[in-house]
Amino acid sequence: SSGINAEYGDQYKMADKKTQTNKAINASTQTDDKKKKIKRPTIELGIYLARLHKKTDNKTRLSLKSLVTTNEMLLEFIRSLSKVLRELKQKTKTQTLNINDIKAAIRLVVGDGELAKHCIMEGSKAVMKFEKK
Q1: Residues contacting residue 104 through CB under 8 Å, at least 6 positions apart
Q2: DSSP 8-state assignment for residue 45
């Protein structure tokens, strides 16, 4: 029985050496991978921006910098719009928002220019399309 234990003991020692060397190799490759990886910016609306751009101009593509910039602009617009809508909801003490509240919030955030008119027109068109379904 002592011969069997010694035989299995050698195998366990060899297995431990193999796992230790594998761990060392994995650790060295992980540090190399961390050095090589460059953190790419997260683009939450990138898919929608690319689709919209493809509809307007099929031949050109957007660069990563332009996607990041446009994404940040849209997210900032959404944040400011939601802030205005929250304040409006608190002032009117209602639980729901109607179309006129959203139109007023868009006018406050964007201003009374052509962009506001375009936003309100497109939003109204989307609401009409949704109500038809």
Answers
A1: 88
A2: S
